[in-house]
Write a structure and sequence with these properties.
Helix content: 40-55%
CATH class: Alpha Beta
Oligomer: single chain
Largest sheet: 7 strands, mixed
Number of domains: 1
Distance between the termini: 6 Å
Number of strands: 7
Structural class: alpha/beta
Strand content: 15-25%
């Protein structure tokens, strides 16, 4: 794991967006969460290096790797980036009360040992506020299985909140900011608990 005084001087953040549409509200949420992490890190005068993994762009590769056991170079690169990251931001749209199937299929390929002790910031998007418990009911158990350090503040954005620009709903904006700050605060603790 790269610590806060690494040779690059940056926290390595990977955002995993499980959105399948285009444009994707889930991608907009992961972008907003990354911006909040970047803002919180800037207060500590720490740079952030970022990469986004779009699950929809890897859907065929994930399916082929699942069935034939032959991951593509692009999938291998995405998995390596997730496993090396100091912090992972991940979000999925809600499908049938849970995360997207292709989202779960990608996470099935991630090395659980590499995720142990890694801070993970959770988010989800859905059609109404009725689905907001999906994060607690399905996403937290998934990342608890990995032994990840789950950021306490998760963010759910419903369709009515989907404008994640400057005019986003005040409560959503506050929650995104809080989640970013919580994630950055967890990084020093993560340095002492992650395997090297």
């Amino acid at each position: 794991m790269t610590d806060l005084t690494s040779t690059t001087g940056a926290i390595d953040v990977v955002a995993v967006s499980g959105g399948v549409g285009f444009p994707s509200s889930t991608r907009r949420l992961t972008d907003a969460l990354f911006a909040a992490v970047q803002q919180a890190a800037a207060v500590q005068q720490v740079a952030v290096a970022a990469r986004t993994v779009e699950v929809r762009d890897l859907a065929v590769d994930v399916a082929n790797a699942t069935v034939a056991g032959l991951p593509s170079p692009e999938l291998d690169q995405a998995l390596a980036a997730i496993e090396r990251a100091d912090l992972v931001i991940t979000a999925s749209p809600v499908f049938r009360g849970s995360y997207a199937g292709i989202f779960k299929s990608l996470w099935d390929m991630v090395d659980p040992v590499a995720m142990r002790g890694k801070p993970v910031l959770l988010g989800a998007t859905g059609g109404s506020t009725r689905h907001q418990l999906m994060i607690d009911q399905t996403m937290r158990p998934l990342f608890a299985y990995f032994g990840a350090l789950i950021v306490p503040t998760a963010v759910y954005a419903a369709t009515e909140d989907v404008d994640l620009g400057p005019k986003r709903a005040p409560e959503l904006a506050r929650r995104i900011e809080q989640a970013g700050a919580d994630a950055v605060r967890m990084l020093p603790a993560a340095r002492t608990t992650q395997p090297h």
